[in-house]
Specification:
Elements: E1 2-10, E2 13-19, H1 30-37, E3 47-52, E4 59-65, E5 70-71, H2 75-88, E6 93-98, E7 101-108, E8 111-117, E9 140-141, E10 144-145, E11 148-151, E12 155-160, H3 169-177, E13 187-195, E14 198-205, E15 209-211, H4 215-227, E16 234-239, E17 242-248, E18 254-259, E19 261-269
């Protein structure tokens, strides 16, 4: 069978979006995800998004990394899905069901605001392998020391450094991602605080590698910086692909605002990617 897809991105963090809300697609397996995500022989993407019907929200979204693993949350993906529904279904405000819970998003043209909920910072909510202070873990890897940990639907470790561009993240990221301290693996963030309203950030995503942007990484980094008193409650986080605006209200909820875009649409033969 032929299946239609939409290629989208949020600040260069790119997605293949498959719409299974009518139940017409076969079951999606990890091998198919890996084949479609391959940038040489497939469509190519950081994550694959599968849209499904929901009895709790406007739709359900399942999120798969390029290595085939399924994850609970992706901030940039929520912006892409919100834009997809605004353009295709005429919905400017949407409620999205994810494995991390219900997420509200609002589209204003190509600018999308997402309510990312209340972050978790307890050691067993990250999770860590054993109890540690998640504001400043007494651990280090190759000069990266005393990180913070935050879970915003998926787990992040955040290192604050003088110059995040100087960190060899492609080399050290996989080691930290797969360290036994993080039993569910972890996303690795290196951040430089420019002033009380601006942060520069690079991210190694578990299951995807270096990425041009990571919405949950921007949220986690902002939360960690706020907890340490380094920034105000509203900050701009500059990633290689562009800038996101992160805010935290008095109830502790995190909001993320930034652009999303559709790149192109196409179709493929499902049997070619089994």
């Amino acid at each position: 069978m032929r299946a239609s897809f939409t290629k989208m991105h949020g600040l260069g963090n790119d997605f293949v979006v498959l719409d299974a809300r009518d139940g017409a697609l076969p079951p999606l397996h990890a091998g198919t995800v890996r084949a479609l995500a391959d940038r040489q022989t497939g469509i190519g993407c950081d994550q694959l998004l599968l849209l499904e019907p929901s009895d709790r929200a406007d739709l359900k979204v399942r999120i798969f990394n390029a290595d085939g693993s399924e994850v609970a949350a992706c901030g940039n993906a929520m912006r892409a899905v919100a834009l997809r529904l605004a353009q295709g279904d005429g919905l400017q405000q949407v409620m999205i069901e994810t494995a991390a819970g219900l997420i509200a998003a609002e589209a204003n043209g190509a600018q999308i605001r997402v309510d990312m909920g209340v972050p978790r910072t307890e050691w067993d909510a990250i999770p860590l392998a054993y109890p540690l202070d998640t504001l400043s873990l007494p651990v280090g890897w190759d000069g990266l020391e005393k990180p913070a940990c935050v879970n915003v639907g998926n787990p992040h470790v955040v290192f604050f450094v003088p110059d995040c561009d100087a960190v060899p993240l492609a080399r050290i990221g996989p080691r930290i991602e797969n360290d036994p301290l993080f039993p569910e693996r972890i996303n690795v963030n290196v951040a430089t605080v420019l002033d009380r309203r601006r942060i520069r950030l690079r991210v190694w995503e578990r299951g995807a590698g270096l990425t041009r942007a990571c919405g949950t990484g921007a949220c986690a980094t902002a939360v960690a910086a706020m907890r340490r008193g380094l920034v105000e409650r509203e900050v701009e986080v500059a990633l290689p692909g562009g800038t996101l605006r992160i805010g935290r209200d008095t109830d502790g909820r995190i909001s993320m605002a930034g652009p999303a875009a559709e790149s192109y649409r196409g179709s493929f033969d499902w049997g070619d990617y089994l």
